[in-house]
Amino acid sequence: MSTLELLAKAAGKTPRYGDLLAGGHGDITWQDVLQALQGVSLAKTSFALYLIVDDKTCRHYFWAGLFMEVMQRPELVARPDLRQPGEVEALCQLAVMEWGGHEKYSNTKRAAAMNVSRGTWYRRHKDTYHEIYKIPGVWQLELEQLLRQRLR
User: Fold this and answer.
1) What are the residue ranges of helices labelled H in the chain?
2) Which of 13, 19, 76, 129 could cross-link with 53 by S-S, CB 3.0 to 4.6 Å?
3) Are 70 and 135 in contact (CB under 8 A)?
4) Rounded distance, CA 149 to CA 63, Å?
5) Which residues contact 68 (CB under 8 A, 6 or more apart)?
6) What are phi and psi of 23, to 5 degrees?
7) Alpha-carbon gap, residue 147 to 132, rounded angstroms
8) 34-66 burial by CB neighbour count: b if 16+ within 10 A, else e?
9) Distances, alpha carbon 33 to alpha carbons 44, 56, 139, in Å
10) For residue 66, which of 85, 86, 91, 92 has the smallest C-alpha distance?
11) Residues whose CB falls within 8 Å of the CB of residue 49, separated by 6 or more in sequence, listed in order
12) 30 vs 10: CA distance, rounded Å
């Protein structure tokens, strides 16, 4: 699915964070947002749809984009604390769940989601997870700046 097709799905829905992204202007339509987001990666567009209109169908694209971003960063992938196959995928999935739920999980809840003890979470996963969790935050800032620029 192209970026425009994904955003076109959102055209009929009411955005929860529309005022935040639109800069508080009520006269901005979804068509304006569609045009402003042309050329943005599928991962970032899916992230925006997942958060703004709570479109669960975009969750996989958001996760896949986050996973690919992490895999392109050797400082994250080559860490000695990621010993088991699938740990990077699981940490990315945890970040997607936390961003999509609009709430911060406790470290106990994160350890349970990873199926490890709290001690193992603190020793092996906590620092890596925080680096992964920051990536969508950077995407959000980039999207907000882009929309403010293009929707003036």
Assistant:
1) 3-10, 18-22, 30-36, 42-52, 59-71, 74-77, 87-101, 107-114, 118-120, 126-150
2) 13
3) yes
4) 27
5) 43
6) 75, 15
7) 24
8) bebbeebebbbbbbbbbbbbebeebbebbbebb
9) 14, 20, 16
10) 92
11) 6, 7, 9, 10, 55, 58
12) 8
| Average pLDDT estimate for 81-105 | 85
Instruction: Give the C-alpha separation, 79 to 124, whole Å.
Output: 9
pLDDT digits (tens, 9 = 90+) for 6-50: 455 544 444 444 554 545 555 667 777 777 888 889 899 888 888
- Distance between CA atoms of 13 and 45, rounded to whole angstroms? 16
**What residue type is 144 in one-letter code?**
E
Phi, psi of 83 (to 5 degrees): -95, -35
Domains of the chain, residue spans: 3-150
Averaged confidence pLDDT in the chain: 80
